[in-house]
Amino acid sequence: MTNEELVKHLLGRRTKACDEAINWLGKRNSDEMWAECEKPDWLLWYAAANVSRKELVLAACDCAETALRYVPEGEDRPRLAIETARSWASGDADIQSVKAAVSATGKARNADSAAAADAAYAAGYAAAACYSTYSPYSPYSPDAGEEANLCDLIRKRWPVCPCTERVNA
Q1: How far is C-alpha 18 from the chain's CA centre?
Q2: ∠ CA 60-65-69 to the nearest 5 degrees?
């Protein structure tokens, strides 16, 4: 997609792109935008309109799994939420199971450390992407190096921009 087409697409979506994203986009076309973006929440937001719900959930789970290292040993609820979301995406779990797993992560959010609570949020948001129209990306705030890694995980799933024109082709 050319820059002009992309800007029109981003501004015409039901959930309009933020001013910061449009300013960052500059003259980039869709392939440049996809390759150069260093904000995983933006990539997931963009992908959400262009890929299946199941694909989006799996990408959100990939990202959320990276935060599990902050969860204290023995606290399994965030991991189980991610596993349940993955099971839903493969057709092996129903939405009620996902909602129960998401609810359980709420109890894990009262962890002693902010990082552990953020990991629980990340898992909950990833799983909630199975049934929610909100962004699958959580308030978890990775540092710049981690953000780059998350973007790489997302781009592994979709090496080229999942543009509407490619999805509908």
Answers
A1: 17
A2: 150
Cβ contact 109:132 at 8 Å:
no
DSSP letter for each residue of 58-117: HHHHHHHHTTGGGSPTT--HHHHHHHHHHHHHTTSS-HHHHHHHHHHHHHHTT-SSHHHH
Write out pLDDT tens, residues 95-154: 999 999 998 888 777 766 777 788 888 888 888 888 876 666 655 567 777 889 999 999
Question: Which residue shows structure tokens 């990833």?
Answer: 126
Tokens standing for residue 73: 């040993």
Q: What is the pTM of this model?
A: 0.87
DSSP label at 148?
H
CA atoms within 13 A on the CB side of 71: 23
